[in-house]
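agent: user wants the structure for Ribose-5-phosphate isomerase A from Cocleimonas flava. delegating to structure tool.
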Amino acid sequence: MTQDEMKKAAAQAALEYVESGMVVGIGTGSTANHFIDLLSSMKGKIDGTVASSIASEERLKSHGIPVMDLNDAGQLSLYVDGADESDKHLNLIKGGGGALTREKIVAGASEKFICIADDSKLVDVMGKFPLPVEVIPMARSYIAREIVKMGGQPQLREGFTTDNGNIILDVHGLEIFEPVKMEDEFNRLPGVVTVGLFARRPADVLILGATEGVKVID
Ligand SMILES: O=C(CO)[C@H](O)[C@H](O)COP(=O)(O)O
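agent: tool returned. relaying tokens verbatim.
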């Protein structure tokens, strides 16, 4: 099985959590794209979706799947999204696709967060994947200096602007032993919009595609 086939298998397994009449929060990235493609077979049964990025919104619409504004949707039953890394407690690093802020908002507004990934994303200690931080452009240098003081090596994601008009600093060299504490430390810095650590709102269920089949951790 290729990595992409494992992602698709995880996305297929997540479909089982979708029930009639639900409004479903939709993540961003290649695994979430598989989920969107598979969800099109159920588009008549769900009440709609809320997208976490412009790219996902466009893909949903291309399938004729209705997309709603989060402000009109109220609390969502379900959020389905990928991740860049997960530990065994389902704390996540997200934002490889740069959609971390809207992803964190939609995850926060959802009762259940199903994370879908291939099994290479499950790690003992997070941080090998550079931690994305969305930053207001005028705060770039200040935040970069603060990150160095915290022991990280920030790198500007060149040529990339988020859907919210901000920049991303990818932070290398971290070993994340206390994810909640680190999420709070980043959130305290004025100019940080969102850090891609999902520890205050981890996933509720992790579905991993693997060569030996699909594994579910909850
Ligand atoms: O956080 C994300 C986007 O901001 C994605 O969920 C994450 O980057 C995983 O992507 P993929 O499913 O392509 O491996």
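agent: one observation worth passing along. Residues 131-195 form a domain with the Alpha-Beta Plaits fold (CATH 3.30.70.260).
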